[in-house]
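Workshop exercise sheet. Pairs work together: one partner reads the sequence aloud, the other fills in the structure field after running the prediction. Swap roles for the next sheet.
Pair: D.N. / O.F.
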Amino acid sequence: MKGRRAQGWGFDLAIALMIFSAVLFLFFFYILNYSPEADKNLADMNSEADSISNLILSEGRPIDWNSSNVQEIGILTGKKINETKLHNFFNISTDNYNLTKSLLKTNYEYFINFSETIYSDGILISEIGKKPIESQYLSKSFRQAIYNNKPITIYFEVWK
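Structure field:
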């Protein structure tokens, strides 16, 4: 009778030791792979994505800006997407992507696409910026806007 209790106790000890070992392994795995710098980078990128989306979803500066006098890129007029401003933004980003980064006050790469197909002066504008490549840090956000009296979603991606 005494021998059977000892075997049951030994089995419980073995299970407890395996669970303890697994928890200890996961703890050290987390500690070794956790990087406060990664949290800071992601927080900075989320802030940057918000800043970029706020600038783009404004009227810009000057209010009737074009490619020769733009100080801040904004694609809205009266809370609706202005095709001319959008077309100008598209052209500037295609011709000089780094200039748009400067105008958007960012050092990060950006990519913008739309939930609806947008044609401006016969040109399809479905995306602006550089498509994300495989990156360790990527922030995504979206905003709503009005185009042709219909709501559309604009997706913003910022990466390093």
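Discussion prompt: The CA atoms of residues 59 and 74 lie 5 Å apart. What would you look at next?
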